[in-house]
Task: inverse folding
């Protein structure tokens, strides 16, 4: 996969925004590291981040966590509650001091019946996520770990980064553990590649932030032949 | 991943069925091997299979196809048209003589506004697909190729198989090429593992059908330690 040629989106009209059709609801404040839902704490419905960041993971049957995504202000998570999946399979944890707004799935269904554009907006939101998942399946299927990490860094910096000097975008610290759960490898392997990327000038990081030069990473991905993982 | 302990679904009430809220629409008949949409033929909207089977794939930027899924009667595909993705990234091809019903995405939006339960049904459908994708991301991340193939055979036989003798379920022929595009490996590797599974009594196959003993495969997966792929 080549992020520089991500499929073009030709929109006949702008997508609907669920936020435009949802009334205010109760707000939950959570501290850094605190679970919003997990094995022991049931999902209350659909959530939207008001402020802060939330990490959503799924646990495999062998007990290995897979990072689904990180969500920021105005983004939704917990949509699986709309199909009444039993709790415990996925969890949402605040990465920093976070506030979220919650709507029970019964309320969402009632509201969608009253405001059909809300339903369309939700359909579009979830379709967008499955397109994202399909890309990730491709990347896991065919990219080397190094390329998967490069894709992850570009994607997170485009989602969360604020422009900084010299083409870098600065975002919250991405721990090597979170990256390993996204890229699906061990933390040690992530640390090895992150050190290499740092020495190549693609990123700088500390406990407080991660800065990524996405353009430089994309150039490198274009030049570097993609390892034919799993091909033989 | 262990298919025998797939996450339990505790439903407060049955999911909505989009079919119950969609009026009849135009029907398209396609021959085996013919494209319903692809790079050269635009998606007409959302499709539902009336009879036959349809294989939906995505092409990676390097030109390698990934099989997204195979759809059968009463199942929907082409939902990406709801977010107006440009054509060419995914394609749908009839695996046998097939009839599909089509609704333009503008019509779906209008219908959903008139029949809110249709919108809820579509949301639930798409949420279900993204949960499926999340499981596949897990499997690609952590399972060996052999286990990924075993999961794929169990899943396809549960979706398409009709009960046959001795615990086998018989379905359409799954080509090694399709399996390689689902499991994400080469056809040669699939052939190697299929021969091995056949000699272990897990399956029989010909040009016309594939028969799978899903219970035997699940037992074997339980005993066989999962290779810690990508773990070091």
Result:
């Amino acid at each position: 996969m080549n992020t520089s040629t991500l499929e073009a989106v030709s929109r006949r009209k702008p997508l609907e925004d669920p936020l435009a059709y949802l009334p205010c609801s109760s707000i939950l404040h959570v501290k850094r590291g605190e679970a919003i839902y997990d094995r022991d704490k049931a999902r209350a419905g659909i959530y939207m981040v008001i402020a802060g960041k939330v990490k959503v993971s799924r646990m495999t049957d062998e007990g290995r966590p897979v990072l689904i995504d990180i969500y920021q202000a105005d983004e939704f998570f917990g949509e699986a509650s709309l199909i009444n999946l039993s709790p415990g399979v996925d969890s949402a944890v605040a990465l920093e001091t976070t506030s979220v707004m919650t709507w029970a799935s019964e309320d969402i269904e009632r509201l969608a019946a009253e405001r059909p554009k809300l339903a369309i907006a939700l359909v579009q939101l979830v379709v967008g996520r499955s397109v994202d998942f399909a890309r990730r399946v491709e990347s896991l299927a065919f990219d080397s770990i190094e390329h998967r990490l490069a894709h992850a860094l570009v994607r997170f910096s485009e989602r969360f980064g604020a422009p900084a000097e010299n083409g870098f975008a600065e975002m919250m610290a991405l721990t090597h553990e979170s990256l390993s759960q996204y890229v699906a490898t061990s933390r040690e392997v992530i640390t090895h590649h992150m050190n290499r990327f740092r020495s190549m000038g693609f990123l700088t990081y500390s406990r407080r932030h991660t800065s990524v030069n996405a353009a430089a990473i994309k150039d490198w991905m274009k030049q570097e032949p993609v390892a034919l993982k799993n091909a033989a």
Summary: Helices of chain A lie at 105-114, 116-142, 145-160, 176-183, 187-199, 214-223. The two ends of chain A are 19 Å apart (CA to CA).
